[in-house]
Design goal:
6-stranded antiparallel sheet, 4-stranded antiparallel sheet, 1 helix, 137 residues
Length: 137
């Protein structure tokens, strides 16, 4: 298993794995085998991890356009999890997270000064059945 490092900081959500959104058909199944979130800040950090997709058809029905506000489907894996100083949180070690590739995987910190490193490994399987391993970033 190979890891690639992603440094995150502040309150902007960080797209760790890019999806295709709900209006496109799924072409792959993504399986996140392991996600390690390491607190690199001098205090505790509070973390959200979730998958999200934009539903453009629902956005068009609700707002009459696809620009500006969007209708999103969001499914939290962890919400407001506190990681103490010098500690890491490992997700999906025993139970991988599986979603089709219409969904993107995000990590978000709660405070502007917070920092963390994210290491993630996932497999991507074509709907037709061929499998490829991916390490993103």
């Amino acid at each position: 298993m190979e890891y690639v490092r992603k440094n995150i900081a502040g309150t902007e959500e960080v797209k760790v794995i890019r999806g295709r959104d709900l209006d496109r058909s799924a072409t792959k199944i993504n399986v996140i085998n392991k996600c390690l979130i390491v607190n690199t800040y001098t205090g505790d950090v509070t973390v959200d991890a979730y998958i999200k997709a934009i539903d453009y058809a629902a956005t068009e029905r609700k707002y009459g356009h696809t620009k500006g506000d969007k209708v999103e489907e969001v499914f939290y894996i962890i919400k407001q999890a506190v990681i103490p100083t010098g500690v890491s949180l490992e997700l999906f070690d025993e139970h991988p997270c599986t979603a089709d590739n219409r969904y993107s995987f995000f990590i978000k910190l709660s405070a502007a000064a917070e920092t963390a490193d994210v290491l993630i490994n996932y497999d991507s399987t074509n709907i037709s059945g061929s499998r490829t391993g991916r390490n993103q970033y």
